[in-house]
């Protein structure tokens, strides 16, 4: 992830370099750690799907009713995969995120989409090179098997699938009412914090808030005091911890991903940057976590009521 930022620092192509880095992040997270052909297909198809979702969100600007309908459909689909459906669960969240952020005005253009895809190809090349140089015995997941399981009905169920987009919609509307500068981050928080397991979601709320706050502080200091080469090193250093933290600690993952993404986005806004984006990101996280808590209370009440009938 640091290589595109380093390239951008040298060539002064800040926006394209930042989205190349974010495309690389998506490819690394989607990697099924399987045979080379499955890796290629899974990553290329996944990245293209996210780019298409962003393009759809961009075309829906100015059409609020169609945008809401698309958000409900995409959010519903993102809520269906179970935790063991690692590929489709993550891809569904990223597709819904791309639609939401693009529709709310996040930068979206053909040049950015191409840069995003190039970043994913860079990551794919390094993934394949790593697999060729260093063989591992780890058993990867199969996106095709996951897909057929979903088709057969092995999902979280329509109740949770509908709860997720409705929570995102309510939170986004409340963020607009509060005149939040970047309301799209509210929906992103909900997508990645809400979980079919209520108890796990409650733990994630706290970890998300603390991890995001610490990550914003680190990202702010980095953008405020480091030069462009230093920002590339910060992104590489914190991206290094993402795979470990993804398995071990949601708090550490929230911290690592916040620093990585926020520094990359601010890099895209150079030479001036936008340090105010940091504080808004934390406010958005609080709003998103608040609505997750509301959704958990309501759904838990409904389950209790059903069990007593």
Automatic annotation (TrEMBL):
The keyword Amino-acid biosynthesis does not apply. It is a multi-pass membrane protein. The chain crosses the membrane at residues 6-28, 40-58, 87-106, 112-134, 205-223, 229-246, 251-270, 282-305. Pfam families: FUSC_2. InterPro entries: Memb_transporter_dom. GO terms for cellular component: membrane. It comes from the Bacteria. Its main location: membrane. Keywords: Membrane, Transmembrane, Transmembrane helix. Residues 171-294 form the Integral membrane bound transporter domain. The keyword Membrane applies. It is found in: Membrane. This is Integral membrane bound transporter domain-containing protein. The lineage of its organism: Bacteria, Pseudomonadati, Pseudomonadota, Gammaproteobacteria, Alteromonadales.
């Amino acid at each position: 992830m640091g290589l595109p930022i380093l390239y951008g620092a040298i060539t002064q192509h800040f926006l394209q370099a930042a989205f190349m880095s974010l495309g690389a992040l998506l490819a690394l997270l989607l990697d099924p750690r399987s045979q080379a052909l499955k890796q290629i297909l899974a990553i290329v198809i996944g990245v293209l799907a996210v780019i298409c979702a962003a393009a759809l969100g961009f075309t829906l600007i100015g059409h609020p009713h169609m945008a809401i309908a698309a958000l409900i459909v995409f959010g519903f689909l993102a809520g269906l995969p179970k935790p063991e459906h690692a590929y489709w669960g993550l891809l569904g969240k990223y597709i819904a995120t791309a639609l939401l952020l693009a529709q709310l005005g996040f930068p979206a253009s053909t040049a950015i989409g191409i840069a995003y895809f190039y970043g994913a190809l860079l990551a794919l090349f390094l993934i394949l090179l790593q697999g060729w140089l260093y063989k591992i015995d780890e058993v990867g997941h199969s996106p095709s098997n996951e897909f057929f399981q979903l088709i057969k009905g092995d999902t979280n169920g329509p109740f949770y699938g509908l709860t997720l987009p409705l929570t995102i919609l309510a939170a986004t509307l409340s963020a607009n009412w509060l005149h939040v500068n970047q309301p799209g981050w509210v929906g992103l928080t909900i997508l990645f914090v809400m979980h079919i397991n209520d108890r796990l979601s409650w733990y994630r709320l706290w970890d998300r808030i603390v991890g995001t706050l610490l990550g914003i502080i680190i990202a702010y200091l980095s953008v405020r005091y480091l030069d462009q080469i230093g920002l590339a090193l910060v992104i590489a250093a914190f991206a290094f911890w993402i795979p470990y933290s993804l398995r071990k600690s949601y708090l550490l993952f929230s911290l690592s991903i916040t620093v990585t993404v926020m520094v990359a986005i601010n890099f895209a806004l150079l030479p001036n940057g936008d340090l105010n984006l940091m504080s808004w990101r934390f406010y958005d996280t609080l709003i998103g976590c608040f609505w997750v808590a509301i959704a958990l209370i309501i759904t838990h009440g409904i389950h209790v009521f059903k069990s007593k009938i």
